């Protein structure tokens, strides 16, 4: 009559030998602790290298924007914002001629589109500034 594997293994058990871990070398443990401390210190210095202890009470806000960046960078940022909003208005005004025949509807849709683009641009600007300040 046939033998089935599950019937043969039904009452069996598996005995594994206990694994004995060798003791760690104390010199190696001391060396590893020294390396870990050195790496932690380097990471701490890397994280805190741009922290100015004299300005610890001041929080980075939008009012600090002009002081942190050069005048040229601020002018370029404002110009970029204006060009983006005007271009969004122009594109949506010209593109809405296929949807609306009246000028009023075209202007309203262009203003809405330019407002959405302007708000998105402001959001990106604020997030970029917060990233420059070291905050997520």
UniProtKB/TrEMBL annotation:
Alphabetized Pfam families for the sequence: Vma12
Cellular component terms per the entry's GO annotation: endoplasmic reticulum membrane
Annotated protein name in UniProt: Transmembrane protein 199
Keywords: Endoplasmic reticulum, Membrane, Transmembrane, Transmembrane helix
InterPro entries attached to this UniProt entry: ATPase_Vma12
GO BP terms in the entry: vacuolar proton-transporting V-type ATPase complex assembly
Chief location: endoplasmic reticulum
Subcellular location field: Endoplasmic reticulum membrane
PANTHER family in UniProt: TRANSMEMBRANE PROTEIN 199
Superkingdom per UniProt: Eukaryota
Keyword Membrane attributed: yes
Membrane topology: Multi-pass membrane protein
Membrane-crossing segments per the record: 73-95, 107-126
Coiled-coil intervals, chain numbering: none
